[in-house]
Amino acid sequence: MLTLYTLTSCLPAAAMAINSYCEVNTPISHTWLDGGISPCFYFTLVPTVLLSIAFLLGTIHYIFYQKYGTAMEPKFIPRSCLYGFQLVLSVLLLLLSIGGMVWQAASASELPGYVVLYGCFSTFAWAWAVVLLRVERRRVLVMDRTTGHSTVLLVFWALAFSSENLAFISWFSPHWWWGLENNQQQVQFALWLMRYISTGLLFFIGLNAPGLPRKPYMLLINEDERDVENVSENQSTWQGFRKKVRLLVPYMWPRGNIVLQLLVLFCLGLLGAERAINVFVPIYYKNIVNELTSGSSWPTVCSTVVVYVVLKFLQGGGAGSSGFVSNVRTFMWIKVQQFTNRVVQVRLFAHLHALSLRWHLSRKTGEVLRSIDRGTSSINSLLSYIVFSIFPTIADIVISIIFFITNFNAWFGLIIFVCMTLYLTLTVIITEWRTKYRRAMNEQDNAAKAKAVDSLLNFETVKYYNAENYEVRRFEQAIQTYQGSEWQAQASLALLNQTQNLIIGLGLLTGSLLCAYFVTERKLLVGDFVLFGTYIIQLYTPLNWFGTYYRMIQNSFIDMENMFKLFEEEEEVAWSCVIFNVRLCSKEILRDVSFTVLPGQTVALVGPSGSGKSTIVRLLFRFYDVHGGCVRIDGQDISKVGQKSLRSHIGVVPQDTVLFNDTIRENIRYGRITASDQEVEEAAAAADIHDKIMTFPDGYDTQVGERGLKLSGGEKQRVAIARTILKAPQIVLLDEATSALDTQTERNIQASLDKVCTNRTTVVVAHRLSTIIGADQILVVSDGRIAERGRHEELLLKGGLYADMWLRQQQAHDSDSSSDTETKDRKSEKLQPPSASLAHHKH
Question: Among 182, 199, 226, where does a domain finish?
Fold first, then answer.
């Protein structure tokens, strides 16, 4: 037997109103009272049993899992929205225990002790059940050969559901709530109904054990055959919800901008005002009907009508429509929305530029651009739907249930609660089911756009091989595949809409019939029927859109998945020291490479293609970091230097030059964006391209086209050289800078490069050995190693790889020269005036 001291320790404030443990001093030993179970006995037995199971057996269960269990690897934990639903139901039952006790303490003049006992014990029991549910989710007994929830949780849920069914035994007892004769019984009935539905759902869902592995954990570890592709297609959209929300939170609150912060608060205030207006509109409509039917005076009716019209003006045509308050809120939110969009795009753009060269070499530009477009636009949609649609709709539902229970009776609250529960539950289940179709549609959309972009970027290759029809067929096949996934998504959407309409129609029919019956029985007025119809239709309007909002939120999460993956890409070359293998395609490129370049010297790297020459240049520019050893400039390890600082002192002329689709002037100015037009032209003259530019109709304002394709290869290379000349760096890297030029132009530019490289440290990657004869040191790279080193004359005397390369190039040059001479002779013989040839033929 529990003493009063135990009760007061549970709820000190309520203990002041406790006069006895049972009502009207009825002893707890009376189990049957007036045709039903004694409430005192029932509400003492049930929480005591539940708490005993939860704390005694549950504690043993918890200790075993903590001591003998092991934490499951995240990849073996299934993702399930039903598991989250289990947690929500458990927390709801915990809150119902607290709320019911607080409500009775506030509404009753005398609070029996068993009410406090029930509230305290039930709260503790459900709290401990939540703990056990989370433990089973994360830990497992390795030797356990079974799957599903433990016996402790299943027994707990079964007893909780069974205890709620015991209430039916007391159907005819006046001490229970079945009569619904007063407000207190109606509220108690509503609380019992929510407990009944929640415990029943917990028990039946628990039999399926969502969120737990389908096989014993040891078997999963041994097999380890999880299909990553299938899991990614079927996983819930809400997976990683916390992580996604953490990424979104910084964009929701405009830090550092007081004006935008005030706008956010003002919009939230308008949102609350809309909720209040939605309640008063049907009430005033009811008052108009009642006043007209009861013969009220004209001034009274007129004032009521005016107030109703003003509220309707503020609300709009219906909840969620464009009323005055909604329009003001939408207008005020524009700046906040633009801020969010701008911050997301800028941050993602900066992040992409910070990624390593390795990632950019393997990316698909079409897919990246499509992911950015959909991801940034979906963030605004997500915030708008959650803040201004989902939360207000849920608030309207809760307000309506409370309103109908207090102003009508519990049956109306029950109808709305059941209808809303079925609607929301089926909406979530069907929407989660059709997620795979939406995700597949996105993947096919990305694939189609990627094929289109890739084909258009490489249009020269398409035309070289007359593959236009082939590319069109490939694109058409991609569109057809996308449309197949789109049909599945649209068909499943139609099924969802029909299910929602059926639930809404049944709820409206049931409530209208019940309200009409009460009006015929003179228990309600005609205005009450009008109030119910107006309120319920007003409520169903946002509820009908709730499925759309939920789908849009889910679609936004799906659209953002690829964008989040871009955010998750790590910077391989960070601002601090990073250790990274110099590997491409899982192949080690450089091994035991070591050399020193003194200030002002020129070092040339030569060797066959794929030997690692360009990789060395990229290491110097810190596109990659080395695994062993280090790269130093003036004795300073470049892996410990900021990339911006390092690259500001280095100029690069790459082997393949890609220009921006802009003017020639702006492409050259890219070397130093603060340079004047005169400095740009001087750099172009030094690169031997100024005179050529002046022959163009638009001069330096000539557009170079996509990737600079309007210019020849030699012209693009000279623009790149002019960029580097304009930058005036201390270290110059020339990666076969003159490979695309003819011999005469190469000689002209070589003289300019010699001037630019004077008193500057220079590293040259060269294919034509004639261009690096004067280098201070030549490194012959072969198979990722430095095979030979020395000056030109020294390497020729060695008779090694360099000498062999030099001999082959000289022979090829002589052969080309003789071929050119023979070609010119043949052309001179053939190129005779047509008239002379024709005359000779006639003669």
Answer: 226
- Torsion angle in degrees (nearest 10) through CA of 65, 68, 73, 78: -40
Asked if residue 836 is part of any domain, the answer here is no
Residue 838 in domain: no
For CA atoms 672, 678, 679, 682, the dihedral sign is positive
Q: How far apart are CA 147 and CA 141, in angstroms?
A: 11
Spatial strand order in the sheet of 785-790: 650-653, 731-735, 761-765, 602-606, 777-782, 785-790
**Closest to 212 measured CA to CA, from 138, 276, 283, 268:** 138
Asked if residue 245 and residue 169 are part of one domain, the reply reads no
Say which residue, 536 or 550, is predicted with more confidence: 536
Q: Is the pTM of this model over 0.90?
A: no
Confidence of residue 240 (pLDDT cuts 50, 70, 90): low
d(CA 156, CA 88): 17
**How is residue 706 annotated by DSSP?**
G
- Residues of the chain by 3-state class (helix, strand, coil), percent to 5: 70, 5, 25
Domain count, the chain: 3
Q: Indicate whether 777 pLDDT > 80.
A: yes
Only one residue has tokens 């504690």, namely 59
Nearest-angstrom CA–CA distance, 312 and 581: 68
* 202-206, 341-345, 730-734: least confidently modelled range: 341-345
Residue with tokens 């690897």: 73
The answer as to whether 832 is a domain residue is: no
Question: Phi, psi at residue 115, to the nearest 5°?
Answer: -65, -45
CATH number at residue 430: 1.20.1560.10
Q: Quick one: pLDDT at residue 291?
A: 84
Position 432 pLDDT exceeds 80: no
The secondary structure of 741-763 as a DSSP string is S-HHHHHHHHHHHHHHTTTSEEE
Let me know: does 748 contact 688? Beta carbons within 8 Å: yes
pLDDT for 61 equals 77
> Whole domain around residue 728: which residue ranges?
583-816
Both tokens assigned to 149: 């929830």
